Amino acid sequence: MKILVINSGSSSIKFKLYEMSSAEEGEVLASGLAERIGEDTSTLTYKRHEKDGSETKQTWNDPLPNHETGLKRIIKALSDPEKGVISSPDEIAAAGHRVLHAGEAFSAPTKVNDAVIDAIKKCIPLGPLHNPANLDGILVASQIMQGASQVAVFDTAFHQTMPPEAYLYALPYELYKEQGVRRYGFHGTSHKYVARVTAKLAGVPQDQSNIITAHLGNGSSMAAVRNGRCVDTSMGLTPLPGLIMGTRTGDIDPAIIFYLGKQLGLSLEELDNLVNKQSGLKGICGHNDLRDVHTAAEEGEERAKLALSMLAYRNKKFFGAYIAALGRVDAIAFTAGVGENDSWVRAQSLADMEHLGVVIDLERNDGRCSEPTLISADSSTIQVWVVPTDEEYEIARETYEVLS
Ligand code: ADP
C-alpha cells in the first residue's frame, strides 16, 4: 500500500512516499520538500530513494503560488516517467497528514471527516502557526487526490492518556471546562515511535514497558510512558513550557510575565515574542543552535558554558521527576537533533544518577548515533538508549493501521 506522508507548513510541504507491506514494514520510495510557497521563487527538492540505499536528487524552481500548486507539483514529480516512482497518482492509497493540535477531540489517528476538520479549526487558537497550514494540506490533498483516503495523525494524540492529575493546571476548574486550558503536550508522534522502539530494544512487552522519552531538538520535550501509554509530558497548553530550548524559556515563574509587562511596559505580543523567540539558549548566550553554543563554550565564552549547564540541569530535573512518577523505569531514550547527536548533553543530563539506577558508559555514549545505540553501562538498572526518531514512518504506519 502506497502512503504519502504530508507535513504541511505555512510556506512549505514536506513529503515522503512509503510502500507499506505491513504495519511493521515500510520502504521509502521518494521524499522531498516544497519550500517558499507563495513567494516569488519557490523550490521543490525531490529525492528518489534507490534500492541500493542511494538517493537521486532533483530540484525544480517553478513558482508555487499556493499549497494546491505545491502538492500538484509534488504528485507530478512522483509520477514523472523518468524520475518518478509511480506510474499514476491513483496508485497512492492514502495520505497521512501531520496535524499539530486536536485538543481533547482525538486520541488516535482518524480518517478525515467533518469532525476532524472542525477539531483542527477549533484548535487554531492553540496552534495558530501550524493548524491552519495543516488544514490547508488536508483540504488541498482531499481535492487533488480524490481516490486516496485522507488520515489525520495528531501531535497531541499520544498524550491524551495522561491522567487529570498530570494534565490539569491548578487554575479555577472552569477554565479547563470552558476554555480548554490544560496540558496537551506535543511531539506525540515522535514520543510514541521512540517509546515503542525502545520497549522492543529493552526486551519488554510494549504494554508493560515503563519508558522515559527525551525528544531534544530545537524544541524539546520529555514524556513519561507507563505500560506503553503516556502519563506525563513536559510541554503544556502550548509548546513553551518544560525543558530549556533553542529560543524558548521552558518552565519559568509565570509571574515574570506580569512583572516585565509592568516594569518595561511590554505588550502581550512583545512578551509572547520574548518567551518564545528571544529566550532559551539564545537568550542566555546569543546562540540558539547547540553546535554554536558548544563552539562558543570551547572558545571560552562564559555565557555559552552557563547556557549548557542550565540546559543539562533542567533535563536532569525532569528525568528525576519522571523516574519518581513512574517508579519502575525500564529504559530512557534520547532522540531528535540534540538527543541523537550531542553526547555531552546526554551524559550531563544523566550525570551522578547512579543512586537512581542510571549509569552512562562514556565510551558507548561517545559520538553521534544514526542507529539505535545502548549508551548505559551493564551495571545500570535503567537502560539508556539513543533511538533516532522517525515521525514520518510513524505517520505512515498509523495511516496504514487506520486503513487496515
Ligand atoms: P527541530 O525539529 O525541533 O527543529 P531538530 O530535532 O532538527 O530540531 O534539532 C535541532 C538541534 O539539533 C539544533 O539545536 C542543533 O544544534 C542540534 N544538532 C544537530 N546536529 C548536532 C550535532 N552534531 N551535535 C550537537 N547538536 C546537534
TrEMBL record:
> What is the name of this protein?
Acetate kinase
List the HAMAP family.
Acetate_kinase (MF_00020)
Q: Which cofactor does it need?
A: Mg(2+); Mn(2+)
Q: Where this protein primarily resides, as one coarse class?
A: cytoplasm
What are the annotated GO cellular component locations? cytoplasm
Q: Where in the cell is it found?
A: Cytoplasm
State the pathway, as annotated in the record: Metabolic intermediate biosynthesis; acetyl-CoA biosynthesis; acetyl-CoA from acetate: step 1/2
For biological process, the GO terms are: acetate metabolic process; acetyl-CoA biosynthetic process
- Organism equals Oceanidesulfovibrio marinus
Residues recorded as binding Mg(2+), renumbered to this chain, are N7, E391
Active-site residues per Swiss-Prot or TrEMBL entry: D155
**Which residues does the UniProt site feature Transition state stabilizer point to?**
H187, R248
- Which residues take part in binding ATP? K14, H215, L216, G217, N218, G219, D289, L290, R291, G337, V338, G339, E340, N341
Q: Report the protein's function.
A: Catalyzes the formation of acetyl phosphate from acetate and ATP. Can also catalyze the reverse reaction.
Which key words tag this protein in UniProt?
Answer: ATP-binding, Cytoplasm, Kinase, Magnesium, Metal-binding, Nucleotide-binding, Transferase
Q: What is its EC number?
A: 2.7.2.1
Which proteins does it associate with, and in what oligomeric form?
Answer: Homodimer.
The residues that hold substrate are R98
The record describes how the cofactor is bound as: Mg(2+). Can also accept Mn(2+).
